[in-house]
Structures are given as structure tokens and as C-alpha cells.
Amino acid sequence: TITKQKLYDIKAIPTLYLLDKDKKVILKDTSIEAIESFFAKPN
Predict the structure, then answer these.
(1) Residue 1 predicted with pLDDT over 70
(2) pTM higher than 0.70 for the full model?
């Protein structure tokens, strides 16, 4: 695997959080499509 062969020196992986107005996590580590779908839904 990549980690066993040490092909890349990755220190961190970016993480995306979508928060509501109270800073509660709504979505975490999701695709752009899922975020677009979330905002396309009526409230």
C-alpha cells in the first residue's frame, strides 16, 4: 500500500466541515455534490 511503501509524506488531510448558525456540524468530509444537494433542499 501507499503508506507501507512510504510513497508520499502526507502530514495532514484537509477536512471540510459545514456548520449551522450555532456552529453545530451538519456535514463532515463530504463531497461537493452532497453540499450542493444540502443547499438545494428547501428549508
Answers:
(1) no
(2) no
Copy the grid coordinates of residue 20.
Answer: 449551522
Do residues 25 and 19 lie in contact, with contact meaning Cβ atoms separated by under 8 Å?
A: yes
Residues sharing a CB contact under 8 Å with residue 2, sequence separation 6 or more, in sequence order: 8
What is the Cα–Cα distance from 39 to 14, expressed in whole angstroms?
22
| 3: pLDDT strictly greater than 80 | no
Q: What is the 3-state secondary structure (H, E, C) of the chain?
A: CHHHHCCCCCCCCCCCEEECCCCCEEEECCCHHHHHHHHHCCC
